[in-house]
Specification:
40% helix; alpha/beta; two-stranded antiparallel sheet; 10 strands; 12 helices; TIM Barrel; single chain
Length: 279
């Protein structure tokens, strides 16, 4: 496993398991399976409604909590609640969160950011992240908050490698965590000829080539899977290295195309979108 050192000195694994769109039972099982397979980064969120299950999966794995890098996200409806972080900790069954994101850039995001800052100062959170934030809000957080952010979480894959954003991140030492790292399972992306060719070259699957591209691009990846074999395959990417020519060839598939485009109206609606029970 390779690691990324954040701009506050915190070190995190560059590949982990994500539990987006998983039921409680699925999340509990996949987290346990991933940790037993050697994975040490787990990503969940208030909005996934499976934080409690993620916590149970961690306990069932038998892996010491201190060996796990735990990531979650606050949902906009709790940004202004004084107990938002404590409630999240309780659901996860832990005393600390290694990286805590604001999940969406709603108008009340500054209140949420201050909640996380308080938690950092209290030793409950080790690093701050912003998920799906546009560059102007990201810059505001960098310029005006007491504690500058360490990480962004955005859609990133070979069709949309976030080239311009990464220039901004390089100026601040911030990291990028990629969601939809495999293009939301888009077969046209996964089956691009360059990945098939490189898969033959290295004896890897097309998906493994894409995940390796992420790692060498400096991206943290959190592919989700419910299948223990697929989970293991997603992390079998640290025994080979793409060449500069390989990376240049992959760069040619950049289409500047996202799979998810949220309108301002959709983003604003998140501030009033109450979540279901976290079981």
């Amino acid at each position: 496993m390779e690691t990324l050192t954040l701009n506050n000195g915190v070190e995190m694994p560059m590949a982990g398991i994500g539990v987006f769109m998983q039921s409680s039972a699925e999340a509990e099982s996949s987290v346990e399976s991933a940790l037993r397979s050697g994975v040490r980064l787990v990503d969940t969120a208030n909005g996934y409604m499976n934080e409690s299950a993620t916590g149970r999966g961690i306990k069932k794995s038998g892996v010491p909590r201190d060996d796990i890098f735990l990531v979650t996200k606050l949902w906009p409806t709790v940004y202004e609640k004084d107990d938002a972080v404590d409630a999240t900790l309780k659901r996860l069954g832990t005393d600390t969160i290694d990286l805590l994101f604001l999940h969406q850039p709603t108008a009340n995001w500054r209140a949420g950011y201050r909640q996380i800052e308080k938690a950092v100062k209290a030793g409950k959170v080790r690093a701050i992240g912003l998920s799906n934030f546009p560059e102007d809000m990201l810059q505001e957080a960098i310029d005006t908050m007491d504690i500058a952010p360490q990480m962004v979480q955005v859609e990133a894959h070979p069709y949309f490698p976030q080239t311009e954003l990464k220039k901004k991140l390089a100026e601040t030492g911030m990291g990028l965590m990629a969601w939809y790292p495999l293009g939301h399972g888009d077969k046209s992306l996964i089956q691009e000829p360059v990945f098939t060719e490189l898969g033959r070259k290295y004896g890897k699957s097309n998906a493994q080539i894409i995940l390796r591209w992420h790692i060498q691009s400096g991206n943290v990846v959190i592919p989700g899977s419910k299948n223990p074999n697929h989970i293991r395959d997603n992390f079998d990417i640290f025994d080979f290295e793409l060449t500069d020519d390989d990376m240049a060839a992959i760069a040619q598939v950049d289409k500047g195309v996202r799979y998810y485009n949220a309108t301002p109206e959709i983003v604003a609606s998140y501030a009033n979108m109450e979540l279901g029970p976290d079981l």
